[in-house]
Hints:
It comes from Natrinema altunense. InterPro entries: HAD-like_sf, HAD-SF_hydro_IA, HAD_sf, PGP-like_dom2. Belongs to the HAD-like hydrolase superfamily. The model has no long low-confidence stretch (mean pLDDT about 95). The chain has helices at about 15-30, 45-55, 65-80, 90-100, 110-120, 145-155, 170-175, 205-215; strands spanning about 5, 105, 130, 160-165, 180-185, 200. The protein has about 220 residues and is of the alpha/beta class. The longest helix is centred in the middle third of the chain and has 19 residues, at about 65-80. The chain starts with a strand and ends with a helix. The chain has a six-stranded parallel β-sheet with strand order 3-2-1-4-5-6, with helices on both faces.
Amino acid sequence: MTAVLFDMDGVLVDSEDYWVEFQREEILPATVPDEDVAVAETSGMNFREIYDYLDDEYGAAISREAFVQRFTEAAEEIYTERAALLDGLHALLAELDDRGVPTALVSSSPHEWIGMVTERFDLENEFDHVISADDIDAASKPAPDIFEYAAAEIGVPAEDCVVVEDSENGIEAAARAGTVVIAYRIDAHGDIDRSPADEVVASPAALRECTLTLAERL
C-alpha cells in the first residue's frame, strides 16, 4: 500500500508566502536584530522550536512569550483571511481516495492552526490522518521524526510513502525518513536546495500528475 503525506504551509495553502514575509520583515528583525538570518534557515520548523533555535544560535532579543504572541496573532490573520487553497486539492484527494490511497496532513504547525485551515476550506474529513509536530516529543524538521511517525500511524513503510513538501528543511526531513519526496517549488522560498527530492514540480497541475503517478508506481 502507498500513502501520500501532504505538508500544509506552502503546499495545501499558500500561507508560506505570508509566513516568509512575516518572518523576514517582522519576527527575525525583532528576535535577532543584530544578525542576518535567512528565512530558509528556519522554514518548516515548529514555531516554538524556531525560538529555541534562534536563542541558542544567536541569542534572542525578545522573550518567548512575546515571540509566541506575535506568531499566534499572525497565524489567525494568515489562515482565516489571507491564505488560499491549492487549486484542485479536493479533486486530488477524492481521486486518491477512489484509488484506495490513504492520505495524511503532516505539519509542523499546531493543531489549532491546522484546524483553522481544515474548517475554512472544508477539509475536516478529507484526510485519513491529521498529524501535528505537537503530537510527538521529537526533533523538528529537518529531522525525519514527524514523517517516520506519520508512516507508523498510517501503517505504511516510509519507503512506500509519497511526501509533498515545499521548504528546504521539510524536503530534507522527508528524504531522511526514506520517503519518496515531491518538492513543490514556490516563489516564497526562492532558490533553496531541493536536491534531496525525487521530483520537483512548480504548479498545482504538475503536482497532481506527479502525485498520482508516484502513488500508482510504488
